[in-house]
Design goal:
Helices cover 79% and strands 0% of the residues. It has helices at residues 4-8, 12-34, 42-66. Helix 2 (12-34) runs antiparallel to helix 3.
Length: 67
Amino acid sequence: MMKIDEIRKLSIEELRVRLQDALEEMENLRIQHSTRQLDNPLRIRFLRREIARMHSVINEMQKKAEA
């Protein structure tokens, strides 16, 4: 799990790549959860929050670039 400081150090391109990877992982976790094969269901919560952090930082960077 990445902390917000670690996320802010990344470039916007790298953030988008990591966000895409996280979204794919979330899809896989949801499938595993629905078929009862998921070992750690809390991983879904942590990943969802990490995705939200990445979205927030990307939006911050875009607004800063526009100003």
